[in-house]
Design a protein that fits this description.
With about 325 residues, this protein is an alpha+beta fold. The chain contains ten helices and eleven strands.
């Protein structure tokens, strides 16, 4: 995790910004009112349309605000990953195998202590024979290699390390249906990940490097200005496409509050609005128990808000 005063690294790929560190995701939410959207899948969870995991994908407006405020910096993630030397790969592979073997040894020791607690009269030799019988039944040799090993990058070099890990799991004395082996998947700790050389603290430098170009149009500048103004007022924002707007505006953390407003950005005071559009926004907002905000922006960075609510007559 980055320090309290250090900018949070936003890893940019295809001009989209992601956050992979869980602590940084929590910091964005609690300190800076930035929620983003989780886009990763979760293991052993059948419904991936409700509960998602890391990485956190940020809206472009969120990225612009964070960088302009100095809360975050942009990282050219693709170029920051350098080609490692064979020596570095070998060192990383050995450390990975040792970490897995250490976890298996601890699990074996814990399992043995548990068995001795349940049956104090059982000797070490009896425990060893019992584990041998369980392995011969196929309860751990076949299932463990599928369940225990975390998917790793495939390359000709690390196949040797994968074989050593599989061998360590197969020859271990760990009994039971499942056991999780934690293998670090964070690229930020790799010796060949040169993040500082591809870090950009301003939008201008990131634009010159070709990794970020938002905002470029008047509509994008208007969206950033409205998002910034609502953020300064203390609101949390999320995507509002499901409710016919640009943003959902929350009075507090969306985990605790429902949104009070649906905000639509009007690029210019001279933008024409159709009566049917106003009626649609008003009725949809009322049907979803929200007020619809028309957020008007001008070139002097002034934002004016108009609230639409449906009212009955007669």
């Amino acid at each position: 995790m980055t320090g309290t005063n250090q900018p949070i690294p936003l890893l940019v790929s295809n001009k989209k910004a992601y956050v992979w560190d869980v602590d940084n995701i929590a910091k964005l939410r609690s300190h800076y009112h930035i929620c983003g959207m989780l886009t990763g899948t979760l293991p052993h969870l059948s419904q991936q349309d409700i509960f998602l995991g890391i990485p956190l994908l940020l809206m472009p407006e969120e990225v612009v605000l964070l960088v302009e405020k100095g809360f975050a910096c942009l990282i050219d993630d693709q170029n920051a990953h350098q080609d490692p030397s064979p020596e570095l790969l070998s060192k990383w592979d050995s450390a990975r195998v040792k970490a897995v073997q250490h976890q298996l040894a601890l699990a074996e020791e814990e399992q043995g202590a548990r068995e001795r607690y349940v049956n104090p009269a059982m000797s070490e030799e009896a425990i060893r024979k019992r584990r041998e019988r369980e392995r011969r039944k196929g309860g751990i040799t076949s299932a463990a290699n599928e369940h225990l090993l975390v998917p790793l990058e495939q390359s000709d070099h690390n196949s040797k390390g994968d074989q050593e890990i599989s061998s360590a799991v197969s020859s271990s004395g760990v009994s039971g249906a499942t056991y999780t082996v934690h293998v670090s998947a964070s690229s930020s700790g790799l010796e060949w990940y040169n993040q500082p050389a591809y870090s950009f603290a301003t939008l201008t430098s990131a634009r010159e490097a070709g990794i970020w170009d938002y905002p470029t149009t008047a509509d994008e500048r208007a969206r950033c200005a409205v998002f910034h103004d609502l953020w300064e007022k203390g609101y949390f924002m999320g995507g509002g496409i499901k409710f016919g707007g640009d943003y959902l505006v929350y009075p507090g953390d969306p985990l605790r509050y429902h949104s009070h407003f649906v905000a639509s950005v009007i690029t210019s005071p001279r933008t024409a609005l159709q009566p049917m559009e106003i009626v649609a926004h008003g009725r949809l907002g009322t049907g979803t128990k929200k007020s619809h905000l028309l957020c008007e922006w001008d070139e002097e960075d002034n934002v004016t808000y108009y609230s639409i609510e449906w009212a009955g007559f007669g």
